[in-house]
Every structure is written in C-alpha cells, then in structure tokens.
Specification:
This protein has 106 residues and is mainly beta. It has a single domain (2-100), classed as Rieske Iron-sulfur Protein, CATH 2.102.10.10. The protein is built from no helices and eleven strands. The chain has a four-stranded antiparallel sheet, with no helix packed on it. Strands 5-6-7-8 form a four-stranded antiparallel sheet, with no helix packed on it. A three-stranded antiparallel sheet has the order 1-11-10, with no helix packed on it. A hairpin with a 2-residue loop joins β3 (26-32) and β4. It is globular, with a radius of gyration of 13 Å. The model has no long low-confidence stretch (mean pLDDT 95). FE2/S2 (inorganic) cluster is lined by residues 43, 45-46, 48, 62, 64-65, 67, 80-81.
C-alpha cells in the first residue's frame, strides 16, 4: 500500500520527523545530506521514539540508551540495539514523500 508521509519541506534537515500513517503505524522520516529516508519510529530495544533522537553519520541515535540504526537499511549500528528495524524506500511525487508498506490492518 502506498502511504503519503508529508511534504518535502516538512522534514527539517538533520532532524527526524515523526509521522503517523493513515493506518496508525508510526514511522520516522529523515532528511540527511540532501536525501530522504524512512524507518519505523519504534526502537527495537525499548519503547523509544527514534524521531526524538538525532541523525549522526547516516544513523539515527535512540534517545533512550544511545543505540543506533542505519537510516538506509534499518540495521543496528550501535549497542544495545541488536534487532533491525524496518526501513522503507522513499519516493517523491508532487512535492510529497511516499513509502510503500503493507498496511497494519492488511
Ligand atoms: S530503547 Fe532505544 S536504545 Fe534502548
């Protein structure tokens, strides 16, 4: 299913944006080095919103225990994170960012 995230200008550079999809799933959107990325917002280590963290060297740093994930692949980059999170390819159409994702209620 195709989900619209937000407008391009809604995502500040180097600062994650929390976006709730139309099916209620929550993702974090990143604008880093001129490109856009998207991962699940929930850290795989605990109940932290990654959108409350920050991006450093292509990874989002969790605000709780400072573990991190690659924003391209969702793979863990730093402990204590060991389980990957979902990452989504972002496409741009009509000034909006979109991702393809299976809906939670499918
Ligand atoms: S909750 Fe994210 S690193 Fe612990």
């Amino acid at each position: 299913m195709l989900f619209t995230l937000c407008k391009i200008e809604d995502v500040p550079a180097d600062e994650p944006l929390r976006v709730e999809l139309s099916d209620g799933h929550v993702v974090a959107v990143y604008h880093w080095e001129g490109a856009f990325y998207c991962t699940d917002d929930l850290c795989s280590h605990g109940e932290a919103s990654l959108a409350d963290g920050y991006v450093e060297d292509g990874a989002v740093v969790c605000p709780y225990h400072m573990g991190s994930f690659c924003i391209r692949s969702g793979e863990p980059r730093a402990a204590p994170c060991s389980e990957p999170i979902a990452a989504y390819a972002v496409t741009i159409a009509n000034g909006e960012l979109r991702i393809e994702r299976r809906a939670d209620h499918d």
